[in-house]
Amino acid sequence: MSDVMDWDAAYRGHIFAGPPPWNIGKPQPTIANLIAAGQVHDPVLDAGCGVGDLTLALAQAGHDVTGIDISTEAINHAAEQATSRGLTARFIQGDARDLAALGLGEPQFSTVIDCTLFHSLPIDARDDYLRGTSAAANPGAHLYLLVFTTDSLPTDSPCPVPNLVTEAEVRDAVAKHWTVDSIEPSHVAVRLPDIPNLPKHNFRTDEDGLTYLPALLLTAHKTA
Ligand SMILES: C[S@@+](CC[C@H](N)C(=O)[O-])C[C@H]1O[C@@H](n2cnc3c(N)ncnc32)[C@H](O)[C@@H]1O
């Protein structure tokens, strides 16, 4: 199955006629709430970290965090930001489908955060990815996975549309490798570009120009 998009091209501004919609300059509010609630324990893996808004915020807060992403463009940007801000975070460019190939095959993380990576993967890559995250997790570690639902975006848009999920679909996929604790309605905040065919909607927007698209937050743990 083909990739959702050319991620480097997206980060170079060639797909959305500007920065990608998910680059909001700060962690997703849903994930920020988890951090504020003390639910993120070190060491942390930020899987599909993009330009590192979350990884860097965690580093800034003193967390031991590793960000991985397939996009060289995004990882370079994240690493430059860490250097210029004097933050310590580990960034690895590579494919989340094979964490072992990135030196992340053994249990070492107490929190795995998937902030919109799952729906960015080809469907046939999900199982390898989830198996790898579980293998890289310490016993008792938590997985937080924020994912777009089927009512988030129109599938017939000329813009690349991620692999949107139903609740049952994401639960079944994750449950093969993790113990699922909860799945709650949530949102992904984006700078919504002009998407043709976007169905009429009343998605919430805020004073910063962010639009809140429907999503699910799945929480799971690795059985000790
Ligand atoms: C929607 S973006 C989210 C980025 C970041 N988590 C955020 O919230 O800003 C999805 C990210 O997944 C990355 N990605 C896609 N496929 C990947 C793969 N196979 N392995 C690692 N990263 C991947 C993309 O490069 C992109 O940065």
Describe this structure in words.
- The structure is a single chain.
- The chain has one domain (7-222): Vaccinia Virus protein VP39 (Rossmann fold), CATH 3.40.50.
- The chain has six helices and seven strands; from the N terminus they run ααβαβαββαβαββ.
- It has helices at 7-11, 29-36, 53-60, 72-85, 126-135, 167-175, and strands at residues 44-47, 65-69, 90-93, 109-115, 137-148, 179-190, 211-221.
- It has a seven-stranded mixed sheet with strand order 3-2-1-4-5-7-6.
- The radius of gyration is 16 Å and the shape is globular.
- The mean pLDDT is 94.
- Residues 7, 22, 28, 48-50, 53, 69-71, 74, 95-97, 115-117, 120-121 line the site of S-adenosylmethionine.
Task: Compile the SSE list and pairings.
Blueprint: H1 7-11, H2 29-36, E1 44-47, H3 53-60, E2 65-69, H4 72-85, E3 90-93, E4 109-115, H5 126-135, E5 137-148, H6 167-175, E6 179-190, E7 211-221
Residues 7, 22, 28, 48-50, 53, 69-71, 74, 95-97, 115-117, 120-121 line the site of S-adenosylmethionine (SAM).
Summary tags:
224 residues, alpha/beta, Rossmann fold, binds S-adenosylmethionine
Short description, anyone?
This protein has 224 residues and is of the alpha/beta class. 24% of the residues lie in helices and 25% in strands.
CATH superfamily: Vaccinia Virus protein VP39
CATH topology (fold) name: Rossmann fold
Q: How many separate helices?
A: 6
Overall geometric form: globular
Provide the succession of SSEs. HHEHEHEEHEHEE
Q: Name the poorly predicted regions.
A: none
Q: What count of structural domains?
A: 1
Radius of gyration based on Cα positions: 16 Å
Give the amount of beta strand, in percent.
15-25%
The CATH architecture is 3-Layer(aba) Sandwich
Q: What is the straight-line distance between the termini? A: 34 Å
> What is the makeup of the main sheet?
7 strands, mixed
The count of DSSP E runs of length 2 or more, i.e. the number of strands, is 7
Secondary structure: helix percent = 10-25%
